[in-house]
Design a protein that fits this description.
The protein is α/β, with parallel strands linked by helices. The protein has one domain. Helix content is about 15%, strand content about 20%. Strand 1 (about 10-15) and strand 2 (about 20-30) form a beta hairpin.
């Protein structure tokens, strides 16, 4: 695709901050191709419109002045490619719930990244997703995520706390660095919740069955019973 056509679809808007420094914001109106802006040191921020549907592999890899990415609502982005935002200056990232797939190393080597909201509809946190993200100190895995791949948080040396939902099915033994506190929504320590092969333990599965039974009992209590609809006898 030619540069001329590219700028019709996605435009760069330049503005100045309070100090008079010129900043370049890329407004994305269509999907971003693989490596389309890779290594572009002129980008400071990216705004993704609700018409874009995907961000390709290495789309912004190595954009060493990129520190912000925002998404219009409702977002239609369903895929973020491998290494899409690797080696950038991102500090925060709020992933739209429309995202169902993220590629390996998507945020690798984002040393300033300290706050992430993961999509509840993206079931897998992939290999090396947050490799060497030393700014991460805690991570909340939302309900809906089922798999955490090998090395997902490798090199996150300041990561101290991770929360796991009941939806987790498999965790790679090398997903997290050693020495961190991992807890589940069922208040079971992660070593009790997950076997070394990554599968849920019997203890966790038993607790899930108990919780499911309690939820079903509560549901039945709140639902109208057949006798509630019987006509009252005339007095």
């Amino acid at each position: 695709m030619s540069n001329a056509l590219n700028f019709i679809e996605n435009e760069i808007i330049t503005h100045s901050n309070a100090s008079g420094v010129k900043l370049n914001c890329l407004k994305i109106n269509s999907s971003v191709y693989n490596a389309e802006y890779q290594g572009n040191s002129n980008l400071n921020s990216v705004s993704v419109s609700s018409t874009a549907t995907s961000i390709g592999d290495s789309a912004f890899h190595g954009c060493n002045n990129l520190d912000y990415v925002g998404f219009d609502s409702p977002s239609k982005i369903n895929k973020i490619g491998g290494k899409a935002f690797a080696n950038t200056l991102l500090e925060r990232f709020e992933m739209p719930s429309s995202v169902t797939e993220v590629g390996a190393g998507a945020f690798a080597n984002c040393n300033y990244l300290y706050k992430v909201k993961w999509s509840k509809n993206c079931k897998t946190i992939p290999h090396n997703a947050f490799l060497n993200c030393r700014g991460l100190t805690n991570f909340h895995v939302p309900e809906g995520v089922e798999y955490i791949s090998n090395g997902a948080f490798e090199g996150c040396e300041n990561l101290a706390f991770v929360f796991l939902p009941d939806s987790i099915i498999s965790i790679s033994p090398t997903a997290f660095p050693p020495g961190i506190k991992i807890h589940t929504s069922s208040n079971i320590h992660w070593k009790d919740a997950v076997n070394w092969d990554g599968s849920p333990s019997k203890k966790l599965n038993d607790l899930r069955k108990i919780n499911d039974a309690k939820r079903e009992a509560n549901r039945q209590k709140t639902e109208p019973q057949p006798e509630d609809f019987q006509p009252k006898k005339a007095i």
